[in-house]
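Researcher: Going back to the complex we discussed earlier. I've cleaned up the inputs and rechecked each line, so this should be the final set. Can you rerun the prediction on the complete assembly and write out the structure?
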Amino acid sequence: DGGITQSPKYLFRKEGQNVTLSCEQNLNHDAMYWYRQDPGQGLRLIYYSQIVNDFQKGDIAEGYSVSREKKESFPLTVTSAQKNPTAFYLCASSLIAAGNSYNEQFFGPGTRLTVL
Amino acid sequence: GENVEQHPSTLSVQEGDSAVIKCTYSDSASNYFPWYKQELGKGPQLIIDIRSNVGEKKDQRIAVTLNKTAKHFSLHITETQPEDSAVYFCAATDLFGTGTSLTVIP
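Model: Rerun complete. Updated structure for the full complex:
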């Protein structure tokens, strides 16, 4: 059963702690993305990766870090430097077609992070 | 910077009526325009998409129109049903709109 998974669904952390959100896909997609979703603000891109061992900052990368050691995995670390980390985090993946043509993004179910 | 504007932010319609959501984009190089539906507590899912070489696309009760000259595109849902209630996002290539919360009143 192919898809993209995120774990855990709910996560609670104390202020000042780093926390890592998991994202795994078995769709053989090259590209993976992390978004942050706040009420009424849509999806804001944190980081994206188009190939293993390479990733690019999105619009709101400050206070976050990622790694892409395997094609299937793209974990996101929310560091203590992120001022307002409480949010709903979404991971997505997509195929990269010839000529860098964009395609549908497949989203995971999301992780709701609450920092106390 | 580049952006995508989406209107309205909330929309309520009676069951059976039509719903229209509109988006405008600023990057003239955009060539892929997907629409996603997000149900409560879940990730968004693609419902329809259109590429820049096409002006209109229809799939059963949903349709999308694209005007590249004016840089705007719209989602049309006809014969709305309560299960259409969700948040809808447009996107221009990889830049998302702010979402429209659609409520279909039975």
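Model: Worth noting: Chain B has a mean pLDDT of 94.
Researcher: Good, that matches what I expected from the previous run.
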